Amino acid sequence: MYRFKGFDSAECGDSMSALETLVNAWMEAERPRIRYMCQSMRGEHILLSFVYEDTRELEKRVATQAQTGVTGGLPRIYDEDLIDECPTSPRIPVTPPPMH
Length: 100
Description:
2 domains; 3-stranded antiparallel sheet; two-stranded antiparallel sheet
């Protein structure tokens, strides 16, 4: 799930170093997987906007998939069925039908 986080330089007295410290502290604490970043102006203030994924949620999802045997979006049972049937699967022709 994507989340949004915004920073306004007005919160830091318009100090670039204070804004940088605030953003870096958030990044170190949350370890976000940033998907989109935007910098814009609001009057005399700098706005930084981030769209990110929470890495803790990602780690939980991966751990759950590993525990349930889901790999590549499909349960392992499907992977095994495909291995057993290929390459002579009756559902998938070896040569494509002729084009008219």
